[in-house]
Amino acid sequence: MCNDARCDRHKPRSFLLIACSQRKRANTEPLPALERYDGPQFRVLRKFLRAHPDASALLEIAILSARFGIIAPSTLIPWYDQRLTPEQALLLRPEALKILQEYFQNTPYVRCCLSLSRDYLRAIEGFEAFVPAACETTIIRGSPGVRLSRLFNWLYTLSK
What we know:
The structure is a single chain. The chain has 160 residues and is α/β, with parallel strands linked by helices. The chain has a single domain, classed as Rossmann fold, CATH 3.40.50. Helices cover 38% and strands 21% of the residues. The protein contains 6 helices and 7 strands. The strands form 2 sheets. It has a 5-stranded mixed beta sheet with strand order 4-3-1-6-7, sandwiched between helices. Strands 2-5 form a two-stranded antiparallel sheet. The longest helix is centred in the middle third of the chain and has 21 residues. It is globular, with a radius of gyration of 15 Å. The protein starts with 12 loop residues before the first strand and ends with a helix.
């Protein structure tokens, strides 16, 4: 058995794209995106990452921000207040698709999950073109409570 981090490169990896949240920590200095966003989905995600470090090491996370487009969880961002409009989703789309394509070209994910509202999904329309057929894709839709429950279930199946 290999306990070396280098062995993780050969294990199946998963990808999560999650929308930013309206609720944000109000610190005045820039924070990592994973810490800045403080909605219920981000709380569930942070709890999962703390509770299951082995599973989280095999999970690549990206955040779709209304202001910054697709960013890494470690990206330092200031506090801001901006909702994603359908028009803005169309403006973000070319760059968002380019970044998603890079994610999928660089890593052979076996599972991916998109936890995005309708407007955020508009920003990545066409992503299916570069997701390998072998990648099990979950798109979480529904009311906020349903989406939260489905995200929780998807994350915790990674730890089994």
